[in-house]
Design goal:
There is one protein chain. This protein is α/β, with parallel strands linked by helices. The protein has one domain: Rossmann fold (3-Layer(aba) Sandwich). The strands form two sheets. The protein has a six-stranded parallel sheet with strand order 2-1-5-6-7-8, with helices on both faces. A two-stranded parallel ribbon has the order 3-4. α8 links the parallel β7 and β8. The termini are close together. The chain is 44% helix and 16% strand. The protein is built from ten helices and eight strands.
Length: 217
Amino acid sequence: MSAPVILVPGLGLGPESYARTVEHLITPYHVVTLPGYGEPAGSREDLHPKALAVALADKVREKSVLVGHSASCQIIVETAVRYPELVHALVLVAPAGDATMSSWVDRAVRLVGSAIPDVPKLIRSVTPQYARTGLPAMARAGEASRQHDLAEVISRVRQPVVIIRGKHDLMSTAEWVERLATLSHGEARTLETGSHVPIATNGPEVAALIERAASLP
């Protein structure tokens, strides 16, 4: 019997970002939004991945496969470390959190370079999602993500980990996902196409890897 799936949108995105993936899922799933990640945030809300892991854990009702995209991968890894009883496996799609990529300039250049192949396909769907979350919340959540070292935390994960990236992703590089896979004793997959949003551009492939994680014993 497969474990249920919980999907957490990436920075600023909402449930719509997973539309191309969930249409290929057989396993029951639920999309959970968080402040800065599909929901606006109050000015005093703590948007650090550790704090958002607590908020996510409050919404998990049974042991599940947690799926994150980009910066939300940092949240689900913190959840797995703090609440291992809630996590069957982790699927990290285009994970952010590389502390060596610390400057905003470096991140911006890489993000723009990664977005170029996908912008024509995604701009109509992404714009309203960003508007709903709000730029102030996105900026604060992005800064909190930038200060979080995913490599340090993922080494403490004991559940199965699958890491997925698109071939043209400059934010989540092949070297980065291989490093995360080594630290977590997990599996790294580079898809033959796609960039930083494979949940939207490579739905069938991402869904198949999620299904496989859900069926792990």
